[in-house]
Design goal:
Layout: H1 3-25, H2 28-44, H3 54-76, H4 84-87, H5 96-105, H6 109-120, H7 125-132, H8 136-154, H9 157-160
């Protein structure tokens, strides 16, 4: 697709795409963001998308982007729904980082390494296996054991705070 065809497609279908997304999520700001993300994704693939398939590509991409946004928002929650009194504490603040570091230091070296790679650095099991020269199942076992130890060591969060 050429730049002219891209611009023509955007001009022809922008309003319909926006209305489609707006009807589904009922938030004009999020709908604009999703439409903008759709245009960006289409622009990045402009050389791969045929002009005859551009409309369906835009609507498919917008729909998938909308679903991703809904899932992300569901995980994050909304502060307006939170009961702020339940989020506050009247107790003295304790250094949770210090307690967690102390608990991590009590772990065997291999368990500490895999738990840090997984939970702090965000590596998946296969990547951790490559880094530590362990099989994926060994990595899972070490992470399970480390999390169990940490849970028992730290105990209930109410006792720590």
């Amino acid at each position: 697709m050429t730049v002219e065809e891209f611009n023509k497609t955007v001009d022809l279908h922008a309003d319909n795409l926006y209305r489609f997304i707006l009807k589904n999520i009922k938030d004009s700001e999020k709908a604009r963001d999703i439409v903008q993300d759709t245009y960006e994704k289409m622009w990045l693939k402009v050389s791969e998308v045929e002009s005859t398939n551009a409309k369906s590509y835009m609507f498919t991409t917008a729909y998938r982007t909308m679903i991703d946004k809904i899932r992300r928002d569901k995980k994050q929650g909304d502060m307006t729904d939170a009961n702020l009194n339940s989020l506050s504490s009247n107790r003295q603040y304790s250094d949770l980082k210090e307690i967690l570091n102390e608990a991590l230091n009590k772990l065997p070296e291999i368990q500490r390494s895999v738990i840090l790679l997984r939970d702090y650095e965000g590596y998946n099991y296969a990547e951790i296996g490559e880094i530590t020269n362990l099989s994926e199942s060994q990595v899972k076992v070490y992470i399970f054991r480390a999390r169990g130890f940490l849970k028992n060591y730290i105990g209930a969060m109410e006792n720590v705070i």
